[in-house]
Each structure stands twice: as structure tokens, then as C-alpha cells.
Amino acid sequence: MTLPKPPKGNRAKTIMTLLVVLVIFVWAFAGISFNGIKATAWQTVQSIVEGFTHPDWGYVWTGEGEDLISLLVETLAIAILGTIMSSLLSIPFGFWSARSKGQRKIVSSSGKFVSSAIRTFPDIILALLFIKMVGPGSFAGILALGVGAIGMLAKFYSESIEAMDHGPSESVVAAGGNKAKVLFFATLPQLVPEFLSYTLYRFEIAVRYATILGLVGAGGIGTPLIFALNSRSWDRVGIILLGIIVMVTVIDIISGKLRQKLV
């Protein structure tokens, strides 16, 4: 038994696609400056591995507020407050962006445009901007995460609103319910679980972002990490990275189980 030959047209498309990808790869590689690998690269790798295998356990807890556990808690607080802020701000943007019956297309299109514009700013760029406004520290990190997530959450929220089943709302209206009853008995029961699920998903991302905001002075565990890297204190780098790995993994597991129960 022999397999049928693929159509010649498909083969030509595959070859053309691979050629285009190859050209793009070569063009991208030619556009970067590559001066080779430093002579100390292997020594640096060995030092990093040494830091992981012999971390600075004395940094885990000192009770002075500048230890690993204290700064991980601060990082977590930045992520929680930033996520709460962004989830609240994203609700009006979500309704603005959602296309609904009787609404002019320009209204939802303008909402989508604004949400997309906010989404283009990386959180670390927003952190640098807010540091200039409110000074370095955790508050700048909270503002960066709070504003930076609006575009993403507003998009998810608007898609939930557009996909909402209008049957329950029509049933409440047919039974004589007013707009408040439609909101509480038909709209919110459908939207709240999905909104919470997306918010938890964003929270997982915010925890990761919060660990690097300190690299630019926006608080959290990133600040001692950049100091340890600059001073080549690899045992301190090792314990900080281990702490981040444990925290992110635990939060991912808990958040994933919660989202499974919600949706």
C-alpha cells in the first residue's frame, strides 16, 4: 500500500513558506551586533551554577525587612494591588469595547483602539514613567502593573460581554424585571466567573512582572537581585532566584486550580 502523493501546489507553498522564514531569519540575524562569546563566559556559568547549588541561606530571613521573605511578600503585594487596580479599571473599558445590540460601531471600535493603545506599553516602560512621576519604590510598581494590564483585561472582558447569553436577560425582562434585576440576576452571574478567571490569569503574569520591576527601581525582589548581579554575589543571586521560582510555581498551581473551578 502506497501513500498518495501530496498535491504539487501544497509542496510549492511549503517550500515558499520555508524560504520566506529563512530570509526573515537571516535578515533578523544580520541586523544584530554579535561580537562572539566572552572568554569569561564559562567561568560565569560555573559561578551561577555554584550560586544555585550553594545559595546564601542566611539571606532567607533576617528580620530587618530587607531579607528574601520580606521582599517576596512585598513583590506579591505589588502584584495583588496592581491586579486589583487593573481589574477595576478594565471593567468600564470592557463594556466600552464590547459590541452590543443597538450600539454604533464607532463606539466599540474607539474602545478597542484605546485598549490596544494601552496594551502597547510594556510594564517596565510604564514603571520607568511612573518612577519619574511618583519616585522609585513599590507604588510606582503598583501603578505600572495596574495601568499596564488594562488593555489585556479590557480585551478579555469585552469578549466575555459579547459572548454572553442574552436569554436570561430576556427572561427577567419578560417577568417584569427592571434593569437592576437584569444586572443582578442575569448579567453578573454570567460575567463574574469569567472576569475572575481572567483576573487570576493576569495575576499570574503580574507576579512574574513584579519580580523584574525592581530592576528599574519599582520595588520588590528585583532590586536586591540587580545589586547581587552587579556585585557578582552568585550565592545571593542563587537564593533570590530559588525564592522567585518557588513563589511563582506555588501561585501558578493555586491560581490554575481556582480558575478550573470558576470556568
Describe the overall structure.
The protein is mostly helical and 263 residues long. It is 75% helix and 0% strand. It has 11 helices and no strands. The chain has helices at 8-30, 41-53, 68-97, 105-119, 123-134, 138-148, 150-162, 167-174, 179-213, 222-230, 234-262. The longest helix has 35 residues, at 179-213. The chain is globular. It starts with 7 loop residues before the first helix and ends with a helix. The mean pLDDT is 90.
Shape: globular
Relative strand content: under 5%
Give me the strand/helix succession.
Answer: HHHHHHHHHHH
| Low-confidence spans | none
| Rg over CA atoms | 25 Å
Percent in helix: over 70%
Count of separate DSSP helical elements: 11
The biggest beta sheet reads:
none
Helix/strand-derived category reads mainly alpha
Overall pLDDT level: 90
Task: Tell me the total number of β-strands.
Answer: 0
Distance between the termini: 47 Å
